[in-house]
Design a protein that fits this description.
The protein has helices at about 40-50, 70, 90-100, 105-115, 130-145, 160-175, 190-195, 215-220, 225-260; strands at about 1-15, 15-25, 30-35, 55-60, 75, 150-155, 180-185, 200-205, 205-210. Strand 8 and strand 9 (about 205-210) form a beta hairpin. It is globular, with a radius of gyration of 19 Å. It starts with a strand and ends with a helix. It is α/β, with parallel strands linked by helices and about 260 residues long. The protein folds into two domains: about 1-75 and about 145-250, P-loop containing nucleotide triphosphate hydrolases (Rossmann fold, 3-Layer(aba) Sandwich), CATH 3.40.50; about 80-145, no CATH class.
Length: about 260
Amino acid sequence: MNVLDVDSMHARFGDHEVLRGVSLQVARGEWFCLLGPNGVGKSTLLHCIVGRVSPARGEVRISGISGPAAKRRLGYACSPEQLPGLLTGRQCLEVYGIAKELDRIDEDVLALSEDLRFTPFMDAFVDTYSLGTRQKLCVLLGLLGEPDLIVLDEAFNGLDPHSSLTLKLHLRKRLSSDRCGVLLATHSLDIVEHHADAAALLLDGVVAKRWTVDELERLKLSGEDTLERALAEVSDQGQPRLRDQAVQRGAAQTSSCSGP
């Protein structure tokens, strides 16, 4: 059974359709990377999956379950700027734990805190944290409660090399036991090339390209920059439509501002 099924997801903000029928699946034990330039709908898709945005149409199932019950089966590493600055790291973990009906913070989350060198900051206020320290806390929050699906949005941004490697190894350990699946939105081709089991490129609100683990492996064997070239080629094919839409939106805004 998949840990995530997204079927025909549509989302809009005003007159702009951000997602136009996106469907994707993440299998148990799979690290799935979502790629794409800024502004194509990656974060909106993640927010629809975790319940922060209500889609216009479409369905999300986590481990075969939809609706509010499904949200209890996922872990979402929020963005660093979304953390409550007036709480300590420990208090954030405790509040998230209560929301997930946990009796205590998971032992493996506490162990990861040590490995990430976050523990010395546990009782400091979040608004005193650096970006990297905030990012570590976001990841720890997303891992609470043994989620079936771990959703990460650029979660490696701001992490030092030691912490980045530590987190990759931790995620791979969880995946190796088929405990969960990971959905990561990222710009990092290094992560895709070395850790992804599957990947998809989102452009203009649709999935423009998918890669299986075998296809990713063939790209790696073909040359160091082959994945980068493949992404560039697919992205270039989508640019004319993006430019046309930008021109149309600009013309509409000019018309509305100019008056009768």
